């Protein structure tokens, strides 16, 4: 829950990938420079909803060269959001603050991305996101990919590379083929996942892939296969070693090229949960069980929507980044 003095921070991995496969992946510092340049053009960096009633923009951007961090203040504005209401704590008298013509209800979220790739993991960068109702992880991922498309549109030559077949054009020069980069934000698995799965009951695990070369199923006249699912069954009972079964499933998926493990279980209170884990990293691909920390201090006096990166919050996020990277480096 967001308050004037407290914010929840999500721990994510920002994974840059390329299509077609084996195409180059742009360095994060290059992408950061392009985003900073794009942020100067309101028309290019604004991501509108189809009805033009909601938008996402970059309200503030900074590249911290000394600490190798890209700082983005993301900002959403929604004309269809309800008007603000306030009520007196003692008398319960309520008043309304209606939006004026052309106004929306804004909300901001700080996003910090380390420009240095994680150790031995090229294209993967630590990322911290301030939790916000209108800027959840999937929407932020969608916006970052929108920015990448805008960057590619502005400089198509930067996203062309020599054809790996060695083919040449009529002039004898290497044939250049287009490619694109995309970003996926995956959550770090929280300790609550292990606690809840061990205190509750594991119900099932499936390994899944959407990669065409892994599906191995012929196309129909009007239908094409888009997902392959492998259901796993334990030798014995799921109750024997829930966490061990999850680790084994991730290893099996990684070896067989099945990128997603779907873990279905109930926690101790009988609530049903489904977690999608990336078999390569163990990261969370859906919204449940993402590692988070709560920053709470009287120095944090934050409005619902900021227009500049908050200096105190910036310092706290930087400390989290540096601490996490030190742990990874041993």
| Main structural class | alpha+beta
Main beta-sheet annotation: 8 strands, antiparallel
* Number of helical segments with 4 or more residues: 7
What is the 3D shape? globular
Helix content: 10-25%
Order of helices and strands: EHHEEEEEEEHEEEHEHEHEEEH
Averaged pLDDT? 92
Rounded to an integer, what's the Rg over CA atoms? 23 Å
Total DSSP E strands? 16
Oligomer: single chain
Contiguous runs where pLDDT drops below 50 for at least 5 residues:
none
| Terminus-to-terminus distance | 33 Å
What share of residues are in beta strands? 25-35%
What does this structure look like?
The protein has 330 residues and is α+β, with helices and mostly antiparallel strands. Strands 1, 2, 3, 4, 7, 8, 11 and 16 form an 8-stranded antiparallel sheet that branches. Helices cover 24% and strands 33% of the residues.
Notable characteristics:
single chain, 330 residues, eight-stranded antiparallel β-sheet, 16 strands
Short summary of the structure?
The chain is an alpha+beta fold. The chain is built from seven helices and 16 strands. α1 (28-38) packs across α3 (137-154).
Topology:
Blueprint: E1 6-19, H1 28-38, H2 42-45, E2 47-48, E3 54-64, E4 69-78, E5 84-87, E6 94-97, E7 105-114, E8 124-130, H3 137-154, E9 160-162, E10 176-178, E11 180-187, H4 191-199, E12 201-209, H5 212-215, E13 228-232, H6 242-256, E14 260-266, E15 272-278, E16 292-296, H7 311-329
Antiparallel strand pairs: 1-8, 1-11, 1-16, 2-3, 3-4, 4-7, 5-6, 7-8, 9-10, 12-13, 12-14, 14-15
Helix pairs in contact: 1-3
């Amino acid at each position: 829950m967001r308050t004037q003095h407290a914010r929840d921070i999500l721990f994510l991995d920002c994974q840059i990938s390329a299509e077609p496969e084996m195409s180059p992946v742009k360095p994060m510092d290059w992408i950061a420079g392009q985003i900073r340049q794009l942020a100067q053009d309101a028309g290019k960096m604004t991501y509108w909803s189809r009805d033009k009633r909601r938008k996402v923009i970059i309200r503030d951007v900074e590249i911290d060269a000394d600490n190798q961090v890209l700082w983005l203040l993301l900002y959403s504005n929604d004309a269809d959001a309800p008007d603000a209401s306030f009520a007196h704590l003692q008398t319960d008298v309520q008043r309304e603050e209606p939006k004026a013509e052309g106004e929306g209800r804004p909300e901001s979220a700080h996003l910090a991305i380390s420009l240095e790739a994680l150790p031995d993991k090229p294209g993967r960068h630590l990322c911290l996101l301030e939790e916000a109702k209108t800027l959840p992880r999937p929407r932020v991922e969608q916006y970052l990919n929108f920015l990448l498309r805008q960057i590619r549109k502005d400089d198509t030559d930067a996203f062309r590379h020599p054809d790996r077949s060695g083919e040449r054009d009529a002039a004898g020069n290497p044939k250049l083929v287009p490619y694109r980069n995309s970003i996926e934000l995956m959550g770090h698995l929280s300790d609550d996942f292990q606690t809840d799965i061990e205190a509750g009951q594991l119900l099932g695990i499936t390994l899944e892939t959407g990669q065409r070369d892994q599906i191995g199923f012929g196309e129909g006249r009007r239908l094409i296969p888009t997902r392959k699912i492998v259901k796993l069954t334990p030798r014995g009972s799921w109750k024997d070693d829930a966490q061990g079964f999850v680790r084994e499933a991730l290893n099996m998926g990684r070896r067989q090229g099945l990128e997603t493990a779907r873990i279905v279980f109930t926690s101790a209170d009988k609530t049903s949960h489904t977690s999608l884990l990336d078999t390569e990293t163990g990261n969370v691909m859906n919204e449940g069980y993402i590692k988070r920390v709560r920053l709470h201090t009287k120095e944090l006096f934050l409005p619902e929507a900021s227009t500049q990166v908050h200096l105190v919050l910036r310092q706290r996020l930087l400390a989290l980044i540096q601490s996490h990277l030190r742990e990874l480096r041993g």
